[in-house]
Amino acid sequence: MSLDGDALSVIENPAAVSHPFPSEKAAGDAASRGVQGWFKGIHSTSHAHRLLRLLAAVCAVGLLGGLAVGVWFLVKFLLRPSYSQSTVGLGDTKETPFCNVTEDISISDPRKVFYRISPENSLLEIQLGKLPTWLPVCYERWNSSLGTLVCRQLGYLRLTKHKGVNLTDIGPNYTNGFIQITSEHKSNLENMWQLRGSCITGKVIALQCFECGTRAKLPRIIGGVEATLGRWPWQVSLYYSNRHTCGGSIITSQWIVTAAHCVHNYRLPQISSWVVYAGIVTRSSAKMAQYTGYAVEKIIYNKNYNHRSHDNDIALIKLQTPLNFSDTIRPVCLPQYDSDLPGGTQCWISGWGYTQPEGVHSPDTLKEAPVPIISTKRCNSSCMYNGEITPRMLCAGYTAGKVDACQGDSGGPLVCQDENVWRLVGVVSWGTGCAEPNHPGVYTKVAEFLGWIYDMIENY
Ligand code: 4AZ
Questions:
Q1: Which of 116, 127, 200 is nearest to 164 (CA)?
Q2: For the CA of 9, the nearest atom of ligand 1
Q3: How much distance in Å is there from the Cα of 319 to the middle of ligand 1?
Q4: pTM here?
Q5: Mean pLDDT of all residues in the chain?
Q6: For 37-46, how does the pLDDT look when each residue is reduced to its tens digit (9 = 90+)?
Q7: Which residue in the list 261, 310, 340, 381 is annotated as catalytic?
Q8: Burial status of residue 303 (CB atoms within 10 A of its CB: 0-12, 13-18, 19 or more)
Q9: Is any atom of ligand 1 closer than 6 Å to the C-beta of 428?
């Protein structure tokens, strides 16, 4: 697949060509013109003349030196360097000489306990610290709220099913011990588990969480970046006053995640002006009779949203009627708790946003593009966003620009695949221009809002 030309948002950005600074000669000319003007009209003796000429020369040299230092300062500190594609290729995640960033190679995982649900027998398995084995969980003192906590920890919105399974039914595979719940404190899964040699009840937990982040088996597409129906089944188009305004992602049959900047201000009270279209790739199909769109019941935007800094740029939309899941309409999973993706992780964006940085044209067909995560350290360096990236944001894209989200993609998904499920890692939020070198797309970091999302969905 070629990225050039068929990317989500594109190319030929004039900022890619570095602008020459005014030459020192021109600066010197200007300076000496200034010096000449200063001395015009002064008459004196030849001695005084010589003295004055000497003074003029000293001043001119001083001014020139000052100008040279000024130009150097401008280049080094004030003007962000831009790189042409020949110096930094697409996908480059290496250090650039101006940025002075050293990436942390080993990113330490803050988690002490790891959870998984065995795909073979649905048993809940836990890994404590760095122990090499995954252990099943005893059934005693288990309940559904613990099940919900575990599912959420794993990025699934809710618990679907849970039961105790007889140890005698699961075969001889589990000989390394068991995990027993030790705490009554049910809002936090930390430090709740203890190692045991056996389970008193002779039963262990089998679990099923809300299904998300999968797509139907699709014919494979090579060489194109126009998405096909069902490839991003969580992607929705949010229409405001009959116009595509933003993207969004389905997380349950009734809830859509989008950006706060899409819905705040004058648009917020106009609930009836919003329509959500799901299961489409062409916007023109939204007008067809079979896609009547979904009416909106509620819009909740994060109350800490700051429209100046773009911090906390996240909102939830509740539909009046639930979506019917199918091959083309499906929810995306959320990130796991405490998950932090390292720079270079390949993720994808999709949307109906502008396809030219200066353009006003939104494509009819949904576009998709791969974008690697850029570490916050690098994205916050002086050559990128110089400290503007808060812990609630993340960056994805390319040093060279050229592939990026743009206006109209806002609110839409940045998804990354993790062990066969797609997770909503980011929400398209902002960026300086579109596809500019050294200005990658900035996304709301969904992992920072898991508590808020669960809270809103439960209580509204
Ligand atoms: C916008 O205006 C917008 N290049 C969205 C994404 C980006 C820039 C602007 C990222 O909605």
A1: 200
A2: 4
A3: 25
A4: 0.79
A5: 80
A6: 222 222 334 4
A7: 261
A8: exposed
A9: yes
